[in-house]
Amino acid sequence: MGLLRRPPHRRPWPACDPGERQADRPLRVALVCTQRLWHGGEEQGALLARGLRQCGHQPAILARADGQFARRMADEGFQVVRFRGNGRNPAAFFQIRAALRRLRPDVVHYNDPHAITAAGLAGVGLGIAARVAARHLCFPIRWAIRYRAFCDRVVCVSHAAAQACRDSGIPPRMIRVVHGGIDPAAWQHGDRARGRGALGVSDEALVLLTVAQLVSCKGHRYLLEAMKSVVQRRPETRLALAGDGPLRPLLCAQARELGIDTHVQFLGHRADVPDLLAAADLFVLPSLSEALPVTLMEAMLSGCPVVATTAGGIGDLVGDPTDAGKPLAWTVPPADPHLLAAAILDALDNERLRAARVARARQRILEHFTASRMVHETLGVYREAMGLA
């Protein structure tokens, strides 16, 4: 999913409250990333760093030398300390420890699980006031002892991620939920005609769009099964799959076996996601597991109607479908192609309902899932962990 992100946007961040800036001294934050590629967690880490800087704090980046995070954040003018590999080697240990000694951070923010091992060990005995881990996944944690040993707080992007932490043995007193967010000011709404031109579809075609890595937890196989039923009812429907991954050959073969290969486009990694969202009639997310999908936030903000499963943190975004009788999306249980097909067809058949749900979905993002709110709440966790709250 994160591989499909656009390069970080340079627009100014919403200004911090001046009173808050005067009341609280600037914090020195070391944000540690061990990942080589750019995924959703790296997107959230970049938003956090930008927001901290705009609010007058002093973020520094510690990242693997050959990773996209180090390069992109350096391009944005951040102080970047590079270390070797994923941090789990002697050379990286001494590089990270030397950087922490020099930077003397108030907070070390582990942006991924490997960072906990790398910077957690390197920071032992350095008197760091708060050690905070971000949890962008809702998979079970195999080595929860790392969190108990090297973390004061664990910030989870959704309630599903928090539950996975509790189930894995992390004490509830350490866990806080801070929803991830996006920056509405930086979001560039796409062009429908340009997007349809890129897809090579006519104005009459009904376009379903999915933006996700082609891996098993994203549930593409069930969407392809559902697509067979959708095409039988609405033969003008086309499915565009943006993203790549190891399952691409198997999914291409499945589309051929189902006889829908002429209705399915495998787009690979795309930089024009806003245009694709503008071109789409529905955004479909058939995931089996999700922490908090950024692509779903982007679809909701862009005004694209949503059909999604109820997996993981998706419910945090679209809410309870029975809430006040005003759902924000069509939702179905994971791994059920029959119900997924029925939801897609119902959405395609109800233009008025699509318009109402799109308006509510966009408002929910603007009120509850902005990057500025995420930064403010994360700062609250830092101060709590430091005993300043």
How do the strands and helices of this protein lay out in sequence?
Elements: H1 18-23, E1 28-33, H2 40-54, E2 58-64, H3 68-75, E3 79-83, H4 90-103, E4 107-110, H5 113-122, E5 130-135, H6 144-150, E6 153-156, H7 159-167, E7 175-177, H8 192-199, E8 206-211, H9 220-233, E9 237-242, H10 248-258, E10 264-268, H11 273-279, E11 282-285, H12 294-302, E12 306-309, H13 314-318, E13 330-332, H14 337-349, H15 351-368, H16 371-385
Parallel strand pairs: 1-2, 1-4, 2-3, 4-5, 5-6, 6-7, 8-9, 8-11, 9-10, 11-12, 12-13
Helix pairs in contact: 2-16, 4-5, 5-6, 8-11, 9-10, 9-14, 12-15
What this model shows, in words?
- α12 packs across α15.
- The two termini are 35 Å apart.
- Residues 1-23 have low confidence and may be disordered.
- It is built from 16 helices and 13 strands.
- The strands form two sheets. The chain has a seven-stranded parallel β-sheet, with helices on both faces.
- With 389 residues, the chain is an alpha/beta fold.
- α9 (220-233) links the parallel β8 and β9.
- The protein has two domains: 2-183 and 370-385, Rossmann fold (3-Layer(aba) Sandwich), CATH 3.40.50; 185-368, Rossmann fold.
- It has helices spanning 18-23, 40-54, 68-75, 90-103, 113-122, 144-150, 159-167, 192-199, 220-233, 248-258, 273-279, 294-302, 314-318, 337-349, 351-368, 371-385, and strands at 28-33, 58-64, 79-83, 107-110, 130-135, 153-156, 175-177, 206-211, 237-242, 264-268, 282-285, 306-309, 330-332.
